[in-house]
């Protein structure tokens, strides 16, 4: 676990479409105090950076959003040395102008999930006997400002004008929204709806990691369109149509992220003033 081949500085939580063609990828199984991550981590080199890819839903896409072990995923990435995470994901657009193929880099988040463990600081002892303290982290700005800037520039560099900012509402799923729910989300002024952005973002913050969401709109959500409603086929088709250019933007962003030791964003100050009670990996 300590050889160079098994370390990484940047993590990407996304499907195999992002790493399957990279040369020289090492598959690493990581154990965590919270159980197993969604899959092995696939570590390789990209633009001179060590990157760990983790298929969020498992390589055979067998994990629905509410069954993903988000704590194990983030912990596993950090244990390899990752300090900056990019989270590409598929979302529904809540405004007519955010149609399929829109890339939105959100700056805010609303949690409407119901059953997910969303903290490492729950008072439960770790297997080594240490007990996390009660910790209340600042989460006013849920995404890394540096990562957002880098992602926006990477998209523009590929002539894909992104939406700069917006609110992602994260629902429990796995079903899509009703029309009434979707109209309500839109009426709140929220921009896109997803199923995995939370607790991924907050768990990254709890580990002092930089986290940037790169949200690809695959459909107009139920309340924003007049047809039959969202289908999974629509989501897969639009994601497939856009995965190549999303990969280009993602890779350019990886290349442009600061070195971990040069980070000086709010994420690096997440633990200021707190005794965590546990050792982070
Ligand atoms: Zn940051």
From TrEMBL:
Substrate binds at residues 195, 219-221. One of its GO terms (biological process) is L-methionine salvage from methylthioadenosine. GO terms for molecular function: S-methyl-5-thioadenosine phosphorylase activity. The keyword Transferase applies. It catalyses: a purine D-ribonucleoside + phosphate = a purine nucleobase + alpha-D-ribose 1-phosphate. It is an enzyme of class 2 (transferase). Residues 9-253 form the Nucleoside phosphorylase domain. Phosphate binds at residues 16, 56-57, 196. Homohexamer. Dimer of a homotrimer. HAMAP family: MTAP. Belongs to the PNP/MTAP phosphorylase family. MTAP subfamily. This is Purine nucleoside phosphorylase. It comes from Streptomyces cinnamoneus.
């Amino acid at each position: 676990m300590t050889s160079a081949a098994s370390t990484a500085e940047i993590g990407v939580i996304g499907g195999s479409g992002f790493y399957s063609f990279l040369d020289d990828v090492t598959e690493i199984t990581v154990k965590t105090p919270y159980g197993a991550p969604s899959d092995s981590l696939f570590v390789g080199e990209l633009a001179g950076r060590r990157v760990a890819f983790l298929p969020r839903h498992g390589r055979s896409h067998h994990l629905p959003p509410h069954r993903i072990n988000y704590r194990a995923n983030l912990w596993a990435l950090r244990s390899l040395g990752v300090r900056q995470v990019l989270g590409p994901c598929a979302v529904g657009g809540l405004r007519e102008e955010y149609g399929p193929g829109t890339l939105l880099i959100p700056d805010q988040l609303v949690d409407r999930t119901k059953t997910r463990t969303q903290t490492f600081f729950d008072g439960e002892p770790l297997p080594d006997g240490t007990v996390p303290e009660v910790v209340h982290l600042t989460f006013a700005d849920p995404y890394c400002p540096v990562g957002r800037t880098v992602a926006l520039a990477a998209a523009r560099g590929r002539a894909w004008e992104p939406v700069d900012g917006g609110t992602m509402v994260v629902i429990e799923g796995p079903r899509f929204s009703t029309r009434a729910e979707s109209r309500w989300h839109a009426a709140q002024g929220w921009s896109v709806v997803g199923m995995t952005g939370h607790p991924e973002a907050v768990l990254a913050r709890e580990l002092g990691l930089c986290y940037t969401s790169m949200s690809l709109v695959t459909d107009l959500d139920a309340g924003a369109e007049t047809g039959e409603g969202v289908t999974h086929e629509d989501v897969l088709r639009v994601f497939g149509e856009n995965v190549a250019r999303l990969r280009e933007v993602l890779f350019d962003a990886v290349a442009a992220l600061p070195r971990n030791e040069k980070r000086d964003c709010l994420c690096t100050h997440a633990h200021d003033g707190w005794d965590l009670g546990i050792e982070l990996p």
